[in-house]
Amino acid sequence: MLISIVFVVVGLVIAGGVLASHRLPAKHADAAPSADGFQEATISINGRYRPGVIKVRQGVPLRLRFLREEDNPCSERVIFSGLGIDRRLPAFHETTVEFVPTTAGTYLFTCQLGMYRGELVVTPANRSHGKERERKEVTSLG
Description:
By secondary structure, the protein is α/β, with parallel strands linked by helices. The chain contains one helix and twelve strands. It has one helix spanning 2-23, and strands spanning 28-30, 32-33, 39-45, 49-50, 53-57, 62-68, 77-80, 85-88, 94-100, 105-110, 117-123, 139-140.
């Protein structure tokens, strides 16, 4: 009986860890400068967005590369609802999203069903990566 209880508890702990790892954003990453003046970050998609938080600078052109490593229908699109950006992401391909983040703030990005979630943190041009939470518009490059 005690062994059965131990197995059930261990199973619940493992299952909870697996579910949490698919729901929680991965660690953050700062966008890296590129030779052509963009700041760039790559987000892998396989059960979630990795990394789940991208920090970028206000006013600097941004290139986000979404590498969809699955064919789950949920991840067919990436949507930045606060920025008016909605892109189709073909399975097992890289899709580039470019724009200039004109306003500091934190912007949620999700899959089409809202199950995969990430954050784009736009820091003010005159400050290092801070924790501004204001949502505003951006200028789209395409």
